[in-house]
Amino acid sequence: MTLLEKEKKVVTITYGCQMSERDAETLTEITRQEGYTSSDDLEDADLVIVNTCCVRESAENKILGKIGDLKKLKEKKPDLKIAISGCMVQQPGALERLQKRAPHVDIWAGTHNLHEFSDLLHRSETGKRVAEIWQEPHQTLESAPLAEKGKLQANVNIMYGCDNFCSYCIVPYVRGRERSRQPQDIIKEIKDLVAAGCKEVTLLGQNVNSYGKDFAPSYDFADLLQEVDQIPELLRIRFITSHPKDLSDKLIETIARGKKLCEHFHLPLQSGSNSILRCMNRHYTREYYLSRVAKIRELLPQATLTTDIIVGFPGESEQDFAETLKMISSVHYSQAFTFMYSKRSGTVAADMPGQIPLDLKKRRLQRLMSVQNEESYQLRQGMIGKCYEILVEGPSKTNPNRLTGRTRGNILVVFDGPPEVTGSLITLRIVEAGSWTLVGEMVP
Ligand code: 5AD
Ligand code: SF4
After folding, report:
1. Is the CB of residue 243 below 6 angstroms from any atom belonging to ligand 2?
2. Pick from 97, 132, 167: which residue ends a domain?
3. Of ligand 2's atoms, which has the minimum distance to the CA of residue 165?
4. Per-10-residue mean pLDDT for the chain, 444 residues long?
5. One domain, residues 225 and 363
6. Do residue 372 and residue 404 come from a single domain?
7. pLDDT value at position 60?
8. Is any atom of ligand 2 closer than 6 Å to the C-beta of 166?
9. 199 plus 282 within the same structural domain
10. Given 92, 107, 132, which residue is the final one in a domain?
11. Which residue has a Cα nearest atom 5 of ligand 2?
């Protein structure tokens, strides 16, 4: 770059799940290879990428608002390039609708062709509007760049897509069928990350428990975990998400035997009612779910469980909802991500009778959250006086004078300590607890 050339800046804004965050990292890395530096300052940006989510209408509305705001920025800065990527763009028929609504956008990219983003950037250089959405994923996933190196924690995709077709969910339509990455590619990626300073990896998949179903000879998620557990200098291994129907005894036993495999299961319940679970196409009953929880508690008494729950699915009666509340009190989740059902066009549930009015969904959500808040509070109170292994992540966002880290069960703790412990495992005794925060002190 000559002195006269201005450094190019990219701002990447991302919405949605960890998969989406991981895609945003790929996009940021591609733009870095194209000479862009990452920035948070929109006023200073030459390129803005909005990586989208469409799992609920509320996410879509937020994103449409953001794309609208960018129009004003582009009026002020006509050379600004705007790119929209991800799940919202990939929805069948969405591109045309979005293009009409946002003619100020320069580049549209779907979920299956993210690794071609540099090509789209070049093609838009002449000021041309570029849109490319592949209907099917091609087998070129390994050509996508890795996440930025040198971070303490990294997300690693082990598979893409989903075959489950839960009746409310848009994900299988925008991320395609399940494809597992080859174990040797995953192991190499993790070893490279560790060589660059990474201490904790989170293995990502819409349903990690069905990893390897497309392989012969057979090799499953438990086999992969055993191999990752052997990687020297890696301190912790996490994974999300576990579909309860595929959570095998072998997997729970593997985690119980593992050294670095963290005892935290994100096990989406969605509903506690058998009839709603059937309509959701979840392929388990509340009894089966509870039997999985019992197996976890038997082999891993210290394990934590978190979950996702939807209220107001079509046809959900007061009795169905009461069954969900009962499950919260039986399982004792450390955290629950709770959502109001959102109608997604093209999914089976969108046409089901018995759609629930918004005000009833809101009331149920409030009741659910207050039951879970009490659970979270009790669980954290029970931790007072006990000692936990913590991986120190660095200064707390809310109080930079303090450090923060997580237990193996993924519970956040803040404490006073020397900054040099960042990146290492230490022991903390819990001295104070609220619903969400824990305060610890270092044990010599
Ligand atoms: N409405 C509400 N919540 C949904 N989820 C997925 N689809 C919908 C929808 N249509 C929730 C599920 C899933 C989480 C990622 O998002 O709980 O586990
Ligand atoms: Fe959606 Fe169900 Fe697949 Fe999860 S398992 S991504 S909820 S279809």
Report:
1. yes
2. 132
3. 8
4. 72 95 93 94 96 96 96 94 96 93 96 92 89 79 63 94 97 94 94 94 96 90 98 98 97 97 98 98 98 98 98 98 97 97 97 97 98 95 97 92 96 96 97 90 93
5. yes
6. no
7. 95
8. yes
9. yes
10. 132
11. 164
332 domain residue, yes or no: yes
Q: Pick the atom of ligand 2 nearest to 172's CA.
A: 8
For the Cβ of 270 lying below 6 angstroms from any atom of ligand 2, the answer is no
How many residues in total does the chain contain? 444
Domain assignment present for residue 137? The answer is: no
282 C-beta closer than 6 A to ligand 2: no
Task: Tell me, in angstroms, the distance from the centre of ligand 2 to residue 287's CA.
Answer: 20
Instruction: Note down the domain range covering 271.
Output: 144-381
**Where would I find the beta strands (DSSP E) of 87-167?**
107-109, 130-132, 153-157, 159-160
Taking the centre of ligand 2 as the mean of its atom positions, its distance from the CA of residue 169, in whole angstroms, is: 6
Predicted local distance difference test score (pLDDT) of residue 139: 59
Mark whether 252 and 356 lie in a shared domain.
yes
> Is the C-beta atom of 379 inside 6 A of ligand 1?
no
Q: What is the CATH number of the domain that holds 416?
A: 2.40.50
What is residue 5's predicted lDDT score, i.e. its pLDDT? 63
**Sign (positive/negative) of CA torsion 295, 301, 307, 311?**
positive
Residue 220 lies in a domain: yes
Residue 184 is predicted with a pLDDT of 95
Q: What is the CATH number of the domain that holds 126?
A: 3.40.50.12160
Residues 104 and 173 in one domain: no
In the reported structure, the alpha carbon of residue 36 is separated from the centroid of ligand 1 by a whole-number distance in angstroms of 34
Paired tokens of 186: 């995953």
CA of 179 to the centre of ligand 2 (A): 14
Give the Å distance between the CA of 401 and the centre of ligand 1. 37
Shortest-distance ligand to the CA of residue 283? 2
H or E segment at 439? strand 438-442
**270 Cβ below 6 A of ligand 1:** yes
Distance (Å, whole) CA 134 – CA 137: 7
With a threshold of 0.85, does the pTM exceed it? yes
Here the CATH number for the domain that contains residue 281 is 3.80.30.20
Do both 121 and 212 map to the same domain? no
Query: What's the structural domain count of the chain?
Result: 3
- Does residue 35 fall inside a structural domain? yes
One DSSP character per residue, 49-64 reads: EEEE--SSHHHHHHHH
Q: Is 207 in the pocket of ligand 2 (CB under 6 A)?
A: yes
Judge if the beta carbon of residue 165 lies within 6 A of ligand 2: yes
- Cross-sheet strand order for the sheet of 236-240: 153-157, 200-204, 236-240
Ligand approaching nearest to the C-alpha of 59 = 1
pLDDT at site 203: 97
Distance CA 309, CA 307 (A): 7
180 and 323 fall within a common domain: yes
Instruction: Using CB atoms within 10 Å of the CB of residue 396, give its burial: 0 to 12 exposed, 13 to 18 middle, 19+ buried.
Output: middle
Q: Where are the beta strands (DSSP E) in 73-113?
A: 81-86, 107-109
pLDDT, tens digit, 9 for 90 and up, residues 211-253 = 999 888 899 999 999 999 999 999 999 999 999 999 999 999 9
